From TrEMBL, chain A:
Belongs to the binding-protein-dependent transport system permease family. This is Carbohydrate ABC transporter permease. Signal peptide: none annotated. GO terms for cellular component: plasma membrane.
From TrEMBL, chain B:
It is found in: Cell membrane. This is Carbohydrate ABC transporter permease. It comes from Yoonia rhodophyticola. Residues 79-277 form the ABC transmembrane type-1 domain. It comes from the Bacteria. The chain crosses the membrane at residues 17-39, 78-107, 114-141, 161-178, 199-222, 259-277. GO terms for cellular component: plasma membrane.
Length: 355, 292
């Protein structure tokens, strides 16, 4: 009987519709729109009508191949070598440009190469920059997710002890989270500059022995510098999630383990960590999703450079869809990003399933 | 023996505080550096980075960087825009999302389970993946304004507000909270003849203080710190929010001291807000972690 009181189709829809309608229009519709656009040649401003091009955008993004190049040989059949004794190779261009013998490589460019014996194996792709952005994004995720998650757990354990004034430390560790990533990025540009704060500190601690590089201007250090800053900014966020997980573990379990005379490590291993299983999955998933969305740091700090060493998938999607007004190309990148994120959350479902 | 173990305990306690404090320094030093640098002329700022003076308000201290920053760019307009957009979005979001959650939890109606699953499914769609199609959509949407029917939402306040009102996370937080409220309360009010809107206004929302605070804080952080969306939909200075304004400001090649002044002006109010309400801020993040 009671449920009759609360049955009302009209009121139900009337209350839910404003919010649900906005959600549909601005999240669900654009989401499906992205799939559709990625199959067309839509541009932001174009005189030509939009055409359906099937999977062309994906083909352009993802086409990749390995080209084996034999070293150049002189008339006697001996390998030609340069002054350092390294074999000389014909240019990759000669295979990928107007070469009727290799139509499958047409329009591709070299991404990287390695040598096997005297042959060079060259990885060529139609869209080298996209592959670099994919690699950079994955490298970012692979480093940031475990390191940030781990550090956040250490911080959570540290501030989960009973000490006078512990709340002050908790508040301080969380502070960078409320500061905009744009502000943080600009601030760290100054810290990372060649004559900036970080190098000054390093130089002071090494008594002038260590001369730091221009962290963001250097291909080898730029992405690492951005990783470190990103971890610093958001680690407090995940610390709080770990902390809320720690607080769900029953104190009687700790009492029992202390009665049994367990060491600190044993207590962590057999009481704390099993109690944190779902929190661990959640933290890793949230960090991973945030890491895949890496954009503001790149836009503010490096613009993808130097030499595409910090470009990311989202940066590429925005760069094309908005910067170059290639809406369909940008949408195809967005769809690939979504599939990556979706597979991560399916893994989460699997890991936290009821057993 | 007792004395030794007490000494040990004292030593341990000190070690703990030292460790905690060293970590704390790592988290605050860039922010202190920012505020201190904003008070210094550029030459001194650069000289000071090589010593502890970088973190101290010493030397030729003044607010001249602030006046210079405000003169170089319409910083006040940017701040006004951000406050306006953030304020309106947070208020409308609380209203629309709580109404929807109220309907999902307390009312029985056909289709509610389907709609609720759609809402929860949107939680895994990263905004970055829909930004570009959304841009195309809003550039074509109609709007009835003071001067009649217009097409296109670019370069307006509405384009910064309306797409952000409803979001899965806010609805989800309200749903979780409402589920724990006693249903007898709602049914008793129905029996007494209260309308649904009365129950929403007089029974449910007055109890919803904690979740309102949580949702408001999370939405505030998202909205005030917005970057990607306003970057692509707002080209006119008049409508630009602070974070995008900052990007353009940086391209004007101002002195570092001025940049630090800009950063301080847009950050310190948020930090002050946070320090006053830090328990609520931290609780709001913690409550996003209790899902599942």
């Amino acid at each position: 009987m009671a449920s009759k009181l609360t049955t009302s189709n009209r009121a139900g829809w009337a209350f839910a519709l404003p919010g649900f309608g906005l959600l549909t229009l601005f999240i669900v519709v654009p989401f499906f729109f992205a799939f559709f656009l990625s199959l067309t040649n839509q541009r932001l401003i174009s005189p030509n009508p939009t055409e359906f091009v099937g999977l062309d955008n994906y083909r352009n993004l993802l086409s990749i191949s390995v080209l084996t190049i034999e070293p150049a040989r002189d008339d006697t059949g001996a390998v030609m070598r340069d002054e350092d004794g390294n074999p000389e190779y014909p240019r990759v261009r000669s295979f990928t440009r107007n070469n009727p013998d290799y139509p499958q490589y047409a329009g591709m460019r070299e991404w990287f190469r390695w040598h096997s014996g005297d042959d060079a194996k060259v990885v060529v792709a139609t869209d080298v920059v996209f592959w670099k952005s994919l690699r950079n994004t994955l490298m970012f995720v692979l480093v940031v997710a475990p390191v940030q998650g781990g550090l956040a757990l250490v911080l959570a354990l540290l501030i989960n002890q009973k000490l006078r004034g512990i709340n002050i430390y908790r508040a301080i560790y969380f502070m960078p989270v409320v500061v905009s990533i744009v502000v943080v990025s600009l601030l760290w540009r100054f810290i990372y500059a060649e004559d900036g704060l970080l190098n000054s500190i390093l130089s002071a601690f090494s008594f002038g022995m260590f001369e730091g590089p221009d962290w963001l201007g250097n291909e080898d250090t730029a992405l690492g510098a951005i990783k470190a800053m990103s971890i610093w900014q958001a680690v407090g966020f995940h610390m709080v999630i770990w902390l809320s997980g720690l607080q769900t573990i029953s104190p009687t379990l700790y009492e029992a383990s202390s009665v049994e005379g367990a060491s600190k490590w044993q207590t962590f291993r057999y009481v704390t960590w099993p109690g944190l299983r779902n929190t661990a999955v959640l933290v890793l998933i949230v960090i991973t999703m945030q890491a895949f969305a890496l954009f503001a740091q790149i836009d503010v700090m490096t613009n993808g450079g130097p030499l595409d060493s910090t470009t990311t998938v989202v940066f590429q999607a925005v760069e094309r869809g908005y910067g170059k007004q290639d809406i369909s190309g940008g949408s195809a990148i967005s769809v690939i990003l979504f599939l990556l994120v979706l597979s991560i959350s399916l893994i989460q479902r699997y890991l936290t399933r009821e057993r | 023996m007792a004395g030794v173990s007490q000494d040990n305990q004292g030593l341990r306690l000190i070690t703990r505080y030292v460790v905690l404090t060293l970590i704390a320094i790592i988290f605050v030093f860039p922010l202190i550096f920012m505020v201190m640098s904003s008070l210094k002329p550029d030459l001194q700022l650069l000289r000071d980075t090589s010593s502890i003076r970088a973190f101290l308000p010493v030397g030729d201290i003044s607010l001249s960087n602030y006046t210079a920053a405000f003169n170089r760019a319409p910083v006040a307009t940017f701040i006004f825009n951000s406050v306006l957009v953030t304020g309106i979005t947070v208020l409308l979001s609380l209203l629309f999302c709580s109404l929807a959650a109220f309907s999902f939890v307390f009312l029985n109606w056909k289709g509610r389970n389907l709609l609720l699953s759609i809402v929860l499914a949107t939680l895994i769609i990263p905004f970055e993946t829909i930004a570009i199609p959304l841009l195309l959509l809003v550039s074509q949407l109609p709007w009835i304004g003071l001067d009649g029917l217009q097409t296109g939402w670019l370069n307006t306040y509405r384009v910064q507000i309306i797409p952000w009102i409803a979001d899965g996370l806010t609805i989800f937080l309200f749903v979780q909270f409402f589920k724990d409220l006693p249903r007898d309360l709602i049914e008793a009010s129905r029996v007494e003849g209260a309308s649904w809107i009365q129950i929403y206004c007089r029974v449910v929302m007055p109890l919803a203080g904690p979740v309102v605070a949580t949702a408001a804080i999370l939405k505030f952080l998202v909205m005030y710190n917005q970057y990607l969306w306003p970057l692509i939909v707002v080209q006119q200075e008049t409508y630009r929010p602070v974070m995008v304004g900052l990007g353009y400001y940086f391209q004007l090649n101002p002195a570092w001291g001025e940049i630090m002044a800009y950063l301080t002006v847009i950050t310190v109010p948020v930090l002050a807000f946070y320090l006053v309400l830090q328990r609520a801020f931290i609780a709001s993040i913690a409550s996003t972690g209790v899902k599942g």
